[in-house]
Amino acid sequence: MIQLITKQLAEQIVQQTMLRLHRNINVMQTNGVILASGDELRVNHIHEGAIEVAKTKSPLRITKDNNHLFPRTKCGINLPIFYQNEIVGIIGVTGEPADLEEIATLLQLTTEMMVHQALIVSEREWKRKIQELVFEELMSGQPIQKYLQERLNKIGFQNKAPFYAMMLEVDPESSSYQNIIQEIEYYLETDSILVGHYQASEHFILISGLDKTTFTRKVTLLAEKLKKYYSLSIGLGREVQLLEQVHYAYRTAKLALQYGNPNKPVISFEEVEIYSLFKNKDSFEVQTYTKKMLEPLDIKLQTTLQKYFDCSLQLSTCAEELGIHRHTLTYRLNKIAQVTGYNPTNFQDALALQLALLLKKTMLKSRVDL
């Protein structure tokens, strides 16, 4: 048998039911201890009738005829309180059982509804707290320990790549915290999700196991729905493949909000990645960016690209200095565009590629200086 009814909840049940029934009400634990009563002198005493109800899981009517079997009790009806088919407490109403039959079933039903609602809220709050504790652990970037994996399993979060971290900045006056959390869970429609409060006005969202297309569609829908009612911005972090990398994904989500257009409801890190690089040339973001941009290129293509920029994007001059035919240079530039996704002959793409080369050179120089 489960002891789930708190003293506070028991007192609320007694107070509300007595207002309606004008009868003395007792709420007992399954071990017989009276948690709350209209007769305060009975609180914390043992109710023998409640112990019997807990054993039989059936109502018990105490009359003058059987009162001697249950010492220190009064005439009345005592009923089991069920939650998810388990008895979690007993409620008793004082008086002659014959006079109480009509209200006994209603009392039991009303009490179970109150208990159910209170425990659902309590369970939701417990789950939210666990989610926030888990997220704090993930922010450390340490290897996933057994106890942390057990917590993830308990709240139904799958350790399944890819992982997407998001940060929400919400105007504290726009709505209550609980409303936002519930709507996020509703619109994202996925079981494997962590949502909670992290720091100041920050709310985090962590999702696992969705493909990029599905994730993007869900986030777009979320933003469209929430912006109707709340003043908020959503930063999308870089997709990562390991739980140990979630701290990095969340950091990039924060950078998206830091450098992005504040008038946009959703800002991805990719949109502001270049700007964030100037924060720290030796940062993980810089290393990740240069690796992403230049790793697909062999030394010959990197040399060609650097020379192309040195020649101010002039094909003829660059081909001449490299000692190759112009068609060969065009082929190499097309190859660079193919493997990186960035076209060197396009101004914006050329800027991104040139920045990667510059950052690589800067990082190499700083290592030599050390």
Explained architecture:
Helix 5 (177-188) runs antiparallel to helix 6 (212-226) and helix 10 (299-310) packs across helix 11. Strand 4 and strand 5 (86-94) form a beta hairpin. The chain has 13 helices and 10 strands. It has 3 domains: 7-125, Beta-Lactamase (2-Layer Sandwich), CATH 3.30.450; 146-279, 2-Layer Sandwich (Alpha-Beta Plaits), CATH 3.30.70; 287-369, Orthogonal Bundle (Arc Repressor Mutant, subunit A), CATH 1.10.10.2840. Helices cover 52% and strands 15% of the residues. A 5-stranded antiparallel beta sheet has the order 2-1-5-4-3, with helices on both faces. The protein has helices spanning 7-21, 48-56, 97-138, 146-154, 177-188, 212-226, 246-259, 269-276, 284-294, 299-310, 315-322, 326-340, 347-369; strands spanning 25-28, 34-37, 60-62, 76-83, 86-94, 163-170, 193-197, 202-208, 232-236, 266-268. It has 370 residues and is α+β, with helices and mostly antiparallel strands.
